[in-house]
Amino acid sequence: MAINFKDDAFVEHIELQGGELTKLKGIPTSKNVTGIEVRLSKAFIKDNKTIKFGPFPGFAQLYLIAIVVNDKGEVLQNLDIKGFPKVGDHEDLPVDKTIYYWKQNFPQEQSPSQIHVLTSIIKSKQKLRDTGKVMSDVKNDAEFSGMVSTLKQVIKNANAVAQVSDVLFSAAALIGKFLGKLDDKPLLTWVQSYTDINGDFDNLGKITTGKSNKNATLDLAIIIRDTSREVEMANMQNMVIEELEIDRNGEIN
After folding, report:
1. Is the CB of residue 65 less than 8 Å from the CB of residue 118?
2. Could you report the per-residue pLDDT of 144-188, keeping only the tens digit for each?
3. Helix (H) or strand (E) run with residue 20 in it
4. Considering the chain, what percentage of its residues have pLDDT values greater than 90?
C-alpha cells in the first residue's frame, strides 16, 4: 500500500506582498528583488510513534523529504532526502539549512514569482537506506520525469497552487516507494507556496512560518533581499534621525 502524504497535510499559500503598514512613506515598492533564500530552520519530533517498553528506548528511524520547485529556470530546484537513525521523542533533527537560493546576476534578471516547498517527516519500518542512491533512482525514474514535465506546465499559471500541490504529493509518494517500508502516514507533511501575485515583494528581511501537530513541528524561513530598496530605506531612516536631532538640539551632532 502506497504511503498517503495528502491526508492531514498542511497546505499553505503566502502572497509575498506587504500591506500599507509595512511600507515607509516615500519608499517605492520593488518589482525585482535581488535575492531570495528559503531555509528549513527547524524539525522537532514530539512523538515518534514508537512505544518504549522493557530495555527498548523507543527510538525511530526517520526520513525527511524536501522538494522545492519554482517558475524561474529549472522547475525542480531541490530534491533532498535525509535519514536520521535512533531518533527519540522531544528531539530536534539537525536540519537548519538552505533548501532554496536565488540571487540576481544582472540588473534586468527577473526574480521568481512562485516558490513551492514540500517537506515531510516519515518513519521507516526498516533499516535506513542509502538516500543518495534513492535520490538518483528517483531522478532517473520515468514517472518522476513525467511529474516534473507536468510541473513545468502547471506552474506557469499563477492560480494553479492546488495543482502544483497535487503533483508534489504524487512526487513524494513515488519517493516513498523507493524508500521501502514506511508508516502509512508521515509524522507531518507540509506544502508551503510563496507567490508574488502583484509582482511586488514588499516585505524585506526574514519571514518565518511553522506548522505543528501532535507528532512534529516544522519551521520554514524565507529571506527577501532588495539592495536598491534597502539603500533607500536606510537613507530614509538616516534622514529621520537627522530631523529628530535638529528638532531636539537645533543642529546635527
Report:
1. yes
2. 999 999 999 999 886 778 899 999 999 999 999 999 999 989 999
3. none
4. 55
- For residue 125, give the amino acid letter: K
| Residue type at position 155 | I
Burial 111-124 (b: 16+ CB within 10 A, else e): bbbbbbbbbbbbbb
Contacts of 228 (CB under 8 A, 6+ apart): 30, 34
Taking alpha carbons only, the member of 162, 176, 196 closest to residue 32 is: 196
Cell 511553522, residue located: 210
Local structure of 228: helix, strand or coil: helix
User: For residues 228 and 30, is the Cβ–Cβ distance under 8 A?
Assistant: yes
What's at 107, amino acid-wise? P
Q: What is the reported pLDDT for 105? A: 84
Sole residue written with cell 524539525 = 43
Half-sphere exposure of 62 (CA within 13 A, CB side): 31
Read off the pTM: 0.82
Residue 9 near residue 59, CB atoms below 8 Å: no
Question: With 80 as the cut, is the pLDDT of residue 234 above it?
Answer: no
